[in-house]
Amino acid sequence: MTSAAADRAPDAGGDDRARGAGGGFDDATAVRTVEPGRFAADVHPGWSIAGRTNGGYLLALMARAALKQEDGRSLPAGRRPAPVAATASYLSPTPPGPVVLTVTTLRRGRTSGVHRVELHDRDGERRAEALVTLGALHEEATAHFDGVEPVDLPPLEDCVRLTVNGPGFTVPLMQMVAQHLDPACAGWLHGEPSSGGELRGWLALADGRDSDPLSLLLAIDALPPATFDLGLGGWVPTLQLSAWVRAVPASGPLRVRQRARLVEDGMVDETCDVWDGRGRLVASGHQLAGIRMPRRG
Amino acid sequence: MTSAAADRAPDAGGDDRARGAGGGFDDATAVRTVEPGRFAADVHPGWSIAGRTNGGYLLALMARAALKQEDGRSLPAGRRPAPVAATASYLSPTPPGPVVLTVTTLRRGRTSGVHRVELHDRDGERRAEALVTLGALHEEATAHFDGVEPVDLPPLEDCVRLTVNGPGFTVPLMQMVAQHLDPACAGWLHGEPSSGGELRGWLALADGRDSDPLSLLLAIDALPPATFDLGLGGWVPTLQLSAWVRAVPASGPLRVRQRARLVEDGMVDETCDVWDGRGRLVASGHQLAGIRMPRRG
Question: E strand or H helix at A58, and its extent?
């Protein structure tokens, strides 16, 4: 199991890896301290879909700034720092390139803290804002009650690997995150959606890095929109995305299920659940997104 | 159907009804403009559980300040202003009494806007912060896809009305919100939880006011914690609460279902779905809360 990403973040302002476009998750979410409460980072072009930076990746970047703000805090043994609750509002698409992250501590507790994170681009334009609750997860916690229906997946080798060539656009994100869909919900790739409104499959960082609490913020928003399985192929811009990180994941590919809930009035809400290699529910994401729908009546 | 609450808010700073403890929902969420971006309000003692102010009520109060910030904006015919996405972080319990709401507009669009709302108490202490996306719901929208299992309820007259006398504490909120639980999930009231982790029932504002997009923010957090149905009777402080308001509700009591998802490591996440009198899904809430659990292992 890896250590928390925040612990591995290069602290030096001049870290070159963080500037390259080809870096893995740790490089792509590296943040450099400018002054207390103010951090610099680079939005990497690879974590995008049809030219739009992925919302889960941006949420992870913002949470990492909050984790860096709390750097050096000592936690009890057997506990891991984690963004247990993180919600972002996306104000306009964030282009690749330098960004500034401003962290305002709203509450500081003994083992938890709540932070506001503002993301501005190089021109000072506001692109996203998040509320991030940091907590301390027990490494060995077990479920007292699990009311979430588990996902059932075929073996990874029987699943369909998604490629950068999406239906009519390119998805560089698929080079960064290896996604293998259950063939039963992959029909939309050749124009035959199942109409169930659900996508499910295996997910892993392509750089071989194990999942940890931070990267789960990416996992809950990395699958294609579940609306693709409803024959709605259009762009689905996230308005607000909330993630609950519930446990420290074991190593190995994650199981992920993204479900459309209500599609109405130009919007869809989706819930994404993530299980680790041991089959434990480790994170859930809920989002409201805009959607281009066919006109009705 | 009522007009939007924001339209009905008394604008005068000296409105006495808003100061009394006995007012209904409109009075209890009234906000008065102090200066642009700054509003005064009174947290009413009646909207509380065991001395703690309800999180859904506070979310509605914060969203109302955002709606007031946008007062006067003209929307196309047949559209209603609504807090389509609203997430709050609760920093510490908000006591009854005067509060100040500071609204910062993060994005302003033609029919939508995103606002940060900060809530400070009379002593200037920060108690809660929210991200609120305002949109314009079509009055006559219909679902393109509904993937949420509908709730099944006995007739209201066969359900159990919750009273202010909770199990070991008082719940003044039950005087403000009439809640009738399905008897099949009300066993915890006499020490016999069903262990299903689900509470469901009918909900209406006790003052007779119809539901509208604003009051749905209250509806998604008004039921008791679903953990009561798991035999976990302790206090469940909300850390973060997200609401999606999806449709303008028809008049009449709402159907509400609150489900516990994962209970682990001192936290629970819950999802609450709300249907209107016509059986249409009108809102969903997702929250992460702390929970006092029996010690294991």
Answer: helix A55-69
User: Which chain A residues are within 8 Å of B148, Cβ to Cβ?
Assistant: 261-262
The domain spanning residue B85 has which CATH number? 3.10.129.10
Q: Give contacts of A146 with chain B, Cβ < 8 Å.
A: 261-264
- Beta-strand ranges (E) seen in chain B are 31-35, 38-43, 48-49, 52-53, 79-90, 97-108, 113-121, 126-138, 143-146, 160-161, 177-181, 198-205, 238-245, 254-264, 267-275, 281-290
User: What predicted TM-score, i.e. pTM, was given to this entire model?
Assistant: 0.92
**Chain B residue with Cα closest to A92:** B107
Does residue B219 contact residue B274 with C-beta atoms inside 8 Å? yes
Q: A213-250 pLDDT, tens per residue?
A: 999 999 999 999 999 999 998 889 999 999 999 999 99
DSSP state string for A130-156: EEEEEEEEETT--EEEE-SPPP----G
One domain for residues B27 and B103: yes
Pair B229, B19: CB distance under 8 Å: no
Q: Give me the sign of the Cα torsion angle B134, B87, B5, B1.
A: positive
Residue A7: what pLDDT? 31
Residue A7 falls inside a structural domain:
no
Does A142 sit within 8 Å of B264, measured CB to CB? yes
**Tally of domains within chain A:** 2
Residue A270 has pLDDT above 70, yes or no: yes
Q: How close does chain A come to B285, measured CA to CA in Å?
A: 9
CA neighbor of A260 nearest in space, from A296, A294, A293, A286: A286
Residue A128 to residue A96: CA distance in whole angstroms: 14
Is B89's CB within 8 Å of A85's CB?
Answer: yes
ipTM of the complex in this document? 0.91
Kindly state whether residue A183 falls inside one of the protein's structural domains: yes
Which residues of chain A lie closer than 8 angstroms to B284, CB-CB?
261-262, 269, 286
B50 and B173 fall within a common domain: no
Q: Does residue B36 lie within any of the structural domains? A: yes
- State mean pLDDT over A61-67: 98
Residues A107 and A220 in one domain: no
For residue A283, give its domain range: 156-290
Inter-chain CB proximity B146 and A281 less than 8 Å: no
- In the numeric block, the tokens 């679902």 are attached to B143
Where does residue B214 rank: exposed (0-12), middle (13-18), buried (19+ CB within 10 A)? buried
SS3 assignment, position A284: strand
Q: Does residue A176 sit in the same domain as residue A252? A: yes
B106: tokens are 């993060």
Summarised one tens digit per residue, pLDDT across range B86-137 is 999 999 999 999 999 999 999 998 888 999 999 999 999 999 999 999 999 9
CB of A196 closer than 8 Å to CB of B146 = no
Closest chain B C-alpha to A163 CA, distance in angstroms: 27
Pairwise CB contact (< 8 Å): A263 & B145 = yes
Residues in chain B closer than 8 A to A270 (CB atoms): none
Domain contains A59: yes
- Residue A169 tokens read as 């656009």
Mutate to test the interface with B, among A121, A261, A296 (most CBs of B within 10 A): A261
CA atoms within 13 A on the CB side of B131: 27
How many Cβ pairs closer than 8 A exist between chain A and B? 176
